[in-house]
Amino acid sequence: MPEQQTFLSLLTGSFSSPAAENPTVAMIEAAYEHHHIDARYLNCDVAPDALGDAVRGARAMGWVGFNCSMPHKVSVIKYLDGLGSSAALIGAVNCVVRRENRYIGENTTDRDFSRPFALLPILHVEGRLDLDLDPLRPGLVVADVIPNPPRTQLIRDAGARGCIVLDGLGMLVCQGTISIRHWTGIEPELQVMRRKLEHIFGV
């Protein structure tokens, strides 16, 4: 007997503010399409004083989970039913997962990055950090966690000095991969997500 057709997609998304520059929706929807996952990812601009309403709305609509970005990574905790070990260790949440109708906060930032990186807002998009670039030399690895744009001034400066550079797209893809695994049980293809972001940003 063929599988019964359904018109009810899994709902996931992101709560942040501002949200317009967050490219996560594009890469996660690309992964959903590639793996034939009937799910949607909604990028929502949620003001701090509306966060509780947003979480209650997600519960009411049966969302299987959502990401949290700045400025909600700590304040969201009071609206959840518990924390996974990753979020408890870091003290911040960037991925919420529905488990047996309970919303559990997780954190997909590698624990070696620790709390400062978990709380890092989107900064210095086109600005220049007050850094001494003289010690940079060929062969050193320089990473920037900012995903939009991926070629930040720091990345450009380090690349011009012959450094090995790691842009913020890699971390964004890894975080998205873990979120999709939490929500669907599927191990998504990283390169599909990375290629989507590279196409958007022309890198």
How confident overall, as mean pLDDT? 88
Q: Which fold name corresponds to the CATH topology? A: Rossmann fold
What is the tally of helical segments? 7
**Unreliable runs:** 111-123
Q: Give the CA-based shape.
A: globular
- Helix content range of the residues, please? 25-40%
CATH architecture: 3-Layer(aba) Sandwich
Q: Rounded to an integer, what's the Rg over CA atoms?
A: 18 Å
Number of domains: 1
Q: What would you note in describing this structure?
A:
This protein is an alpha/beta fold and 203 residues long. The protein has one domain: Leucine Dehydrogenase, chain A, domain 1 (Rossmann fold), CATH 3.40.50.10860. 34% of the residues lie in helices and 18% in strands. The chain has seven helices and eight strands, in the order βαβαββαββαβαβαα. The strands form two sheets. A six-stranded mixed sheet has the order 2-1-3-5-6-4, with helices on both faces. Strands 7-8 form a two-stranded parallel sheet. Helix 1 packs across helix 7 and helix 6 packs across helix 7. The N and C termini lie far apart (47 Å). About 6% of the residues have low confidence.
Task: Give a quick set of tags describing it.
203 residues, alpha/beta, Rossmann fold, 6-stranded mixed β-sheet, two-stranded parallel ribbon, 7 helices, 8 strands, 34% helix
List the topology elements.
Blueprint: E1 10-16, H1 24-34, E2 39-45, H2 51-61, E3 65-68, E4 82-83, H3 85-90, E5 95-99, E6 102-106, H4 114-118, E7 141-143, H5 153-160, E8 164-166, H6 168-184, H7 190-201
Parallel strand pairs: 1-2, 1-3, 4-6, 7-8
Antiparallel strand pairs: 3-5, 5-6
Helix pairs in contact: 1-7, 6-7
